[in-house]
Amino acid sequence: MTKSEIFRTIDGYDGSEESMERMFERDKDELRSLGIEIEVSGLDPLFEDELGYRIRPENFAMDAKGYSAIEIAYMSLGAQLWKDASLNEPSQRALRKLSSFSSSINIADIPAVAPLTSSAPSFLDEVITAISEKKTIAFSYVDTEMSIKERRVNVYSYFSNQGFWYFNGLDIDKNENRTFRCDRIVGDISIARKSQNYEIPSDWREQIIFMDTPSNHLVTLRIRTGRGAQLRNIARLIKSEEEHDVLEINYQSESEMLALILWHLDDVEVISPEPLKLKIIESLKSLAALHG
Amino acid sequence: MVKKFTQNQVERLLDLVPYLSTNQGVSLEKIASDFQTDKSTVIDDLNTLWMCGLPGYTPLELIDLSFDTGFVSIRNAEVLSKPRKLSSLELATVIVGLSILLESIPSTSPHFEAITDLLSRLATSSNVPVPISISSNVNSEVRSILEQGLKTKHNISILYHSYAKDIESTREIQPIGFQFIDGHEYLDSFCYSSKDFRLFRLDRIKEATVTGLSKNVSHLTEKNEILRQFFFTVTSNSRKVSEIFHVKIPPDNSDSKEFESTAFNDEWIIRTFCSLNSAATLTQPADLRSEVAMRANRALALYL
User: Fold this and answer.
1) Is residue A29 over pLDDT 80?
2) Domain membership of residue B100 as a residue range
3) 8 Å CB contact between B203 and B181
4) Better-predicted residue by pLDDT, B126 or A29
């Protein structure tokens, strides 16, 4: 359809040429925000100035052919998890669209409850949008000593671990990759308008996996028999003695390993390395002194 | 006069046609609940749709609706009868939802592979970012057995690691329901071993097996655990301390300011202060405070 046809046949376009143009632009934007793409192309190769507008069905409608009935059901199940959680609204719209496919299958053996959605931050949609549109975000973040600082981040990815939600990416002011726990953000996050503002490193996933490798330090511990399940979960047994087992653990964070050993008090003894052993002795001395 | 639509209404109208085409004869009440609106809005929408059609606008091209009986059917709407594409955000709810589902079903489930495959196709055909990982530390085999026991009303035998006491024990329980507290999943249940109602943290259940059929246990005796109040000061690492004890610590905290919190379990209080490595000091109650010193000295004796 040409623009003049649209102006002629559709009610509501009136006034000056200029105001009709403005209305037309606004209407196109509105359609786009509804997910309807409008294509513009020359109708007649000889007359370049008369442009035609059309909406292709494939740009507008969901193609069900690519997905089987059971897959539509899985998708509904996935969306259902957000009922009354942070992505409630878009999930209900997704469900409505999915329910328009003729066959509905009920999958009884997957429970449609997931507590993880209830701990998702209210701004999860904005984090996802920021990543997919490469927009910088800004927010207030509580640091380890409870001061609140403004952070600006190019978000690369997000994940959930043990009930908490995180995202990571480039902290612009520190110029370093950082991970942020969503519940440590104060208030809302704001998204910059400019899209495609940064690139996500192509090897980002590999970088993350590398960051998670827990294996650069080794500790040998003597643990009382029947105790220390938290440590035993991540340890290799070296030998069993009468009342103890000797185990080895690879770890990454020294402060976390110290905390874990201290938690177990006299059920766990550090055999090696010497520096870690000295730190434990130091910590126990100061604990006893502070609480004496 | 042209009627003004809100964007919401336009979206609803666009989604209504494919919905009605699939669900012919659906009741007005059902539409209202599926579209999260009220019945009068639905009637309003249907009246609007009635006047819609393709250019030409003769009665032949108009969408034909009947809904005066309270049940709605639609004809002449073939062009608009396909559901609209999911927007990025709508697709995100599906993608993150499926990632969460994958984490909670065992990899031996027949659905596991199918969902993995679907998820990767959805991700490659869109620009919606998939979460890097979703992990809850809950054993998915254990979870599926607990769900099975709950659904079929069977007792379950669990191997449980009680965290504060650092002891593993086998208990016979009757599952009652799941709870989510402070980022952790719990199983509410009647524990036959302690003859009382107990909450078990899912990530500390090491093994589970279904045993006999459950008897009726009424949830009459509400648990009445005694909360222990304690006081402490904070010297460093205040964010960690504030997250563990659920207290607000100001950024300009001084070493001498006392904070107050509560816990159910003395052993947990003692071990937590030890693991905090002097970032916080327990000041009261005196018996717990001296217990910390005594236990620290006992551990110290291992090295002397």
Assistant:
1) no
2) 88-124
3) no
4) B126
Mean pLDDT taken over chain A: 83
Check CB contact under 8 Å for B88 and A132.
yes
Lookup result for tokens 């071990």: B271
Residue B223 lies in a domain: no
Q: What's the CATH code, domain A124-212? A: 2.30.30
User: B74 and B92: one domain?
Assistant: no
Q: What is the pLDDT, as a whole number, of residue B149? A: 87
Cβ–Cβ below 8 Å for A291 and B293: yes
Q: Where are the domains of chain A?
A: 3-60, 69-116, 124-212, 217-290
How far is Cα A56 from Cα A63, in angstroms, rounded to an integer? 12
Considering the domain architecture, whether residues B13 and B64 belong to the same structural domain is answered as: yes
How many alpha carbons lie under 13 Å from residue A254 in its C-beta half-sphere?
Answer: 8
Q: List pLDDT tens digits, range A172-207.
A: 999 988 899 999 999 999 999 988 999 999 888 777
- For residue B290, which residues of chain A lie inside 8 Å, CB to CB? 291-292
B250 lies in a domain?
A: yes
CA dihedral A76, A78, A80, A86 (to 10 degrees): -140
Question: Would the pLDDT of B220 be above 50?
Answer: no
Q: Is residue B129 part of a domain?
A: no
CA distance A268 to A223: 5
- CA dist., res. A74 & res. B112, Å (int): 11
Which candidate in B16, B132, B240 is best for mutational testing of the A interface (most A CBs within 10 A)? B132
Q: pLDDT, tens digit, for every residue of B60-113? A: 556 677 777 777 777 766 656 666 678 888 899 999 999 988 888 888 888 889
pLDDT at site B283: 93
**Cα–Cα distance list, A194 to A29, A131, A135, A191, B54 (Å):** 17, 12, 6, 9, 38
Q: How many domains does chain B have?
A: 4
Which CA distances in Å does A51 have to A27, A28, A29, A45, B253?
Answer: 17, 14, 17, 10, 67
Does B289 share its domain with B255?
yes
The verdict on A49 touching B (C-beta cutoff 8 Å) is no
| CB contact at 8 A, A186 and A142 | yes
Q: What is the pLDDT of residues A137-155, one digit of tens each?
A: 999 999 888 889 999 999 9
Assign domain A217-290 to a CATH class: alpha beta
Tens-place pLDDT, residues B234-259: 988 888 898 888 888 888 877 788 99
**With an 8 Å Cβ cutoff, are B251 and A147 in contact?**
yes
Question: What's the rounded mean pLDDT across residues B13-37?
Answer: 81
- Assess whether B235 and B291 both reside in one domain: yes
